[in-house]
């Protein structure tokens, strides 16, 4: 199944299925303490399934509507540098990991089978143009809400890490240029 993001900015978007039905809304309010709210839509309207409270100092927290529990993201998701991934235990008790590579990919621990993969927008230069989407295997539909909430956190962390690496590289290059 393809979950299509209707905007490039995945933290402020509507997610639809391939038939164009609205499934989720993601909205982030960035003032002093940014919060991302995830709302799910069904035949009876929308209801909140999760909230990510982003923190620069201290732990970012994730609230899951299904359980009513708020947890520190670093407690929920273990981190590994080699290979770069975030591991977590799903509501079904299974161990899963989001890779932190070019395209965020979800796999069951110990397997190479892709359960979900994020595809960024393609403008059609090298291949067919498409909006950003999350491709999800039917085998994990039972925890789709969790997958979406955790994906948002992991993808944002990926962006922050890439930004830090680019800034560090620029500073190092500038320092080398001024030394010579």
What is the averaged pLDDT score? 87
Separation of the first and last Cα atoms: 54 Å
Q: State the secondary-structure class.
A: alpha+beta
Name the shape in a single word.
Answer: globular
Low-pLDDT segments: none
What distinguishing features does this structure have?
180 residues, alpha+beta, 13-stranded antiparallel β-sheet
Q: How do the strands and helices of this protein lay out in sequence?
A:
Layout: E1 2-5, E2 13-16, E3 22-29, E4 35-42, E5 45-53, E6 61-64, E7 69-72, H1 73-76, E8 78-81, E9 84-89, E10 95-99, E11 105-108, E12 114-119, E13 133-136, H2 144-179
Question: If you had to describe this structure to a student in words, what would you say it looks like?
Answer:
- By secondary structure, the protein is an alpha+beta fold.
- Helix content is 22%, strand content 39%.
- It is built from two helices and 13 strands, in the order E-E-E-E-E-E-E-H-E-E-E-E-E-E-H.
- Strand 9 and strand 10 form a beta hairpin.
- The mean pLDDT is 87.
